[in-house]
Target: Malonyl CoA-acyl carrier protein transacylase
Amino acid sequence: MGKVAFLFSGQGAQYVGMGKSLYEQNPTARQLFNQANDLLSFDLKELCFEDSQNLINQTAYTQPAIFTISQMALATLKEAGIKPDVVAGFSLGEYSALCAADVFSFTEGVELVAKRGELMGVASGDGKMAALLGLDVEKATALCREASSKGVVELANLNCPGQIVIGGEAEAVNYACELAKGYGAKRALILPVSGPFHTSLLKETAQNFGQLLKMKNLNQPKLPIVLNVLGDFYHHDLSLIDLMIKQMATSVKWEASIKKMIEDGVDTFIEIGPGKTLSGFVKKIDRSVKILNVEDVASLEATIKALQN
Model:
């Protein structure tokens, strides 16, 4: 058997009810959830399991919630004796991966991610993001170049073949969507997010977040980790804090990250946390690898069974 990679879900994967079966049936998961709940300024149980106030899609709430559910799912895998050879996470999910690699503790992670969500939630301004379907990087870059006559618009997420997300100032992103068909795009869809994440418009927010990061005593990763900013493995002569700061305002090189892991011998990917968005991306990058996920008790049991076979 080849290597196993754990992939951690990003923002957008949230749904009401996420983590509920883990909370109800696994004492370790429940303990983590309660720890996070004590640290946060809102009722995590109400948010994740009921969301009567419709807050789950607001960045400041979404980020600590997804981080917590992902760490609960990770803990249940660890209890089953399943360990990764490498970890990576998509955008917000990178913080789950860093926590899995012991860069910081769970409680420090909750604090960091809550602050990150809060800052990104207010950083939105007049920005937006859009998914371009059916374009390669070259054409998407040329499209952004033309649309930038209306303002800032940049490549934000390089997800998988035929799916690139752009972000920037609203007028420029709208203009890029109008031009997209002319560049060969099948579709251009405005995404329901609160800001132009992973673009230069978030540089100031990233620097503000960096002030908190610099106060933390971060460890070097104890596991190989592939970072969004690099699309490659992190190595110790790079500044981890600088890369974490940069991540918020730089494009997510997801396709390159997955290809790099496969090149390194990974043949099994386990998506950890809510949803199967990353599994879908991996499938489009390489159909020959095994893709599993853990977000609740049923998927945990299915993943354990698949790995035993």
Remarks:
- The two ends are 11 Å apart (CA to CA).
- Residues 127-193 form a domain with the Alpha-Beta Plaits fold (CATH 3.30.70.250).
